[in-house]
Design goal:
single chain; 614 residues; alpha/beta; ABC transporter transmembrane region fold; Rossmann fold; 3 domains; six-stranded mixed beta sheet; four-stranded antiparallel beta sheet; 18 helices; 9% strand
Length: 614
């Protein structure tokens, strides 16, 4: 059974390395507000623990004061009031600590999540094509939840508990003798050692749960995104079976995780019981021989019960932290994945919009490229698209046409040669300015599951309603939109599936018009449409191409007859180039493709006429 492809470079990170990666977010440079809050929270933590360790002392003195002396019992009002105040102080400083640290914790979670999200967008197209989006999203989701767990539990539960252990051990040694302190410290050490060792052994069960959870999530996401395909082939039962297989493996891993947790809890309880029994026997002997008062007996019992309560919780805390660290590990490994495509130091900026400059001139100079080192796709491609010209690229499937547009957009870097815009090697300009200067109308337009207004305005975030409507008019889609009951507020559905192919293409054209790029790529923008719909949006395409350098990647030759130059690609090489008329006169590859498409159009035309008549 295939597993989700989340393999990342490098080895799995250690717990220390993962936690260390979190520290810069907890103490961000230049954020004095966060620094002050952390210091105040630590101060409240110490104050709460000091109050906590004094509670049993005051309590024991109150017990001794209430012991009958000469048949008289004096009510120790001051001690009882002090006891109450200490409990209030312990709880109050603890809550104040959490309140002060809350904003630091949530801001840290936000910063980690946003940085991971931004880094995912900075990674190359190759990275995203090699991995499954459902698994990545789950890794980020679990990672941010893990950050919350580690901050909430490690910083203000583990550290305070260890501090309390040291303080209580010192007080017991001071008030009693070294034997009590030794037994206490030994029991605590065995407890912590057992917890750490056992929990570390359980980590691989959690990792297995994460892997299977990612797989199940990916399968569910892929199936739902391809809802229509599932229905076309009647494979609902098959999809349910695949999902159930992943859930069954998750069930097995989850059961193992729970059973081992029960074993851990049982061992912790046994250690606590043995330590408490030994201390109580020693204290009882002290009361019997008169070396200890009843108040001291109560004191040692109260201290141990007070100490073992957070220790008992420490088992849960440690397990939660280990799980959180495992969840954080993959997210931090994602952050450390190096960018394949990065801006060079001192990269220049291209003029982005048509209103800010002339149409861009494009040059491919002896370009070589392969998606894999052992399989080259483009073999020395060279051509020039002059500013404002329309250059068409045609050829059979697999010739490398769409690869050219990916290189121009710098989704990948060339392995040989260079690509220039306005005389600048695109590797020497910033990616943001390069992509701002290029607009794309793809063959398969994918829209966001939002309104038509949002999808058009995505071309220039912050555009006004008037600008959106102007772009829609130029794209020949405004009249269609206003006839809808909700107009521009109409939801387009997942990937825009509520709209027809032609309607989606017009929205994509409007989005590109609003972007106002200097260079336009029409990547088989009409090949998926019927002839009638294609003719309807040709006017929109002419509007968006006006005064721009246009690169047309086409399968249907009838859409490129007006191009200033046509390149014919075959097996990653330029087989022919020229105008439509000159290529027909040459009677080569282009002419044969033209004749084949003309014959097919002649066959299809009578069928179309019959359908129209019906």
């Amino acid at each position: 059974m295939a597993r989700p492809n989340l393999a990342l470079p490098g080895q799995p990170r250690s717990t220390l390395a993962t936690v260390t990666s979190l520290l810069p977010y907890l103490w961000p440079k230049g954020d004095r507000g966060a620094h002050v809050r952390v210091v105040l929270a630590v101060g409240c933590l110490i104050a709460a623990k000091v109050a906590t360790v004094y509670i049993p002392l005051v309590y024991s003195h109150a017990v001794d004061a209430l012991s009958p002396k000469n048949s008289f019992v004096v009510i120790p009002v001051a001690l009882i009031v002090g006891y109450g105040l200490l409990r209030v102080a312990s709880a109050g400083f603890g809550e104040l600590r959490d309140a002060v640290f809350a904003s630091v914790q949530q801001r840290t979670v936000r910063r980690v999540a946003v940085e991971t999200f931004q880094h995912m967008h900075r990674l190359s197209l190759r990275f995203h094509l090699d991995r499954q989006t459902g698994g990545l999203s789950r890794a980020i989701e679990r990672g941010t939840a893990g950050v919350q767990s580690v901050l909430r539990l490690a910083v203000f539960n583990v550290v305070p508990t260890l501090l309390e252990v040291l303080m209580v051990t010192g007080i017991i040694w001071r008030l009693f003798d070294w034997r009590f302190a030794a037994v206490t410290l030994a029991a605590v050490s065995v407890y912590i050692g057992f917890t750490v060792a056992f929990a570390s052994w359980r980590v691989h069960f959690r990792r297995t749960m994460n892997d299977v959870d990612s797989e199940a999530n990916t399968k569910a996401l892929d199936s739902l995104l391809n809802y229509e395909t599932v229905k076309y082939f009647g494979n609902e039962a098959h999809e349910a079976q695949r999902f159930d297989d992943a859930q069954r493996r998750y069930e097995t891993a989850a059961v193992k995780t729970q059973v081992t947790l029960n074993m851990l809890n049982l061992g912790q309880a046994a250690i606590i019981a043995l330590g408490l029994t030994a201390i109580m026997l020693m204290a009882a002997n002290g009361v019997q021989d008169g070396s200890m008062t009843v108040g001291r007996f109560v004191l040692v019992n109260t201290y141990l019960m007070q100490l073992y309560q957070p220790l008992n919780f420490l088992g849960f805390v440690y397990n939660t932290i280990k799980q959180g660290v495992v969840d954080m590990e993959q997210m931090f490994r994602l952050i450390q994945v190096e960018q394949e495509i990065a801006d060079r130091p001192g990269a220049t900026t291209l003029a982005a919009h048509r209103t800010h400059g002339t149409p861009g001139a494009i040059v491919f100079d002896d370009v070589h490229f392969g998606y894999r080192p052992d399989r080259e796709i483009l073999h020395g491609i060279s051509f020039t698209a002059k500013a404002g010209a329309k250059l068409a690229i045609v050829g059979p499937t697999g010739a490398g046409k769409s690869t050219l547009s990916r290189l121009l957009f710098r989704f990948y870097d060339v392995t040989g040669g260079r690509v220039l815009i306005d005389g600048h090697d695109i590797r020497d300009v910033t990616q943001s300015s390069l992509r701002a200067a290029i607009g794309v109308v793809p063959q398969d337009t994918v829209l966001f599951n939002d309104t038509i207004r949002y999808n058009i305005a995505y071309g220039r975030v912050g555009a006004s309603q008037a600008e959106v409507e102007r772009a829609a008019r130029l794209a020949q889609v405004h009249d269609f939109v206003v006839r809808l009951p909700e107009g521009y507020d109409t939801k387009v559905g997942e990937r825009g599936l509520k709209l027809s192919g032609g309607e989606k293409q017009c929205v994509a054209i409007a989005r590109t018009i609003l972007k106002d790029p200097r260079i336009l790529i029409l990547d088989e923008a009409t090949s998926a449409l019927d002839t009638r719909t294609e003719q309807e949006i040709e006017a929109a395409l002419r509007n968006v191409s006006a005064d721009r350098t246009t690169l047309v990647i086409a399968h249907r030759l009838s859409t490129v007859v007006d191009a200033d130059e046509i390149l014919v690609l075959v097996d990653g090489r330029v087989a022919e180039r020229g105008t439509h008329a000159s290529l027909l006169a040459r009677d080569g590859v282009y002419a044969r493709m033209w004749r084949l498409q003309a014959e097919q159009a002649a066959v299809d035309r009578p069928e179309t006429e019959v359908i129209a008549a019906e």
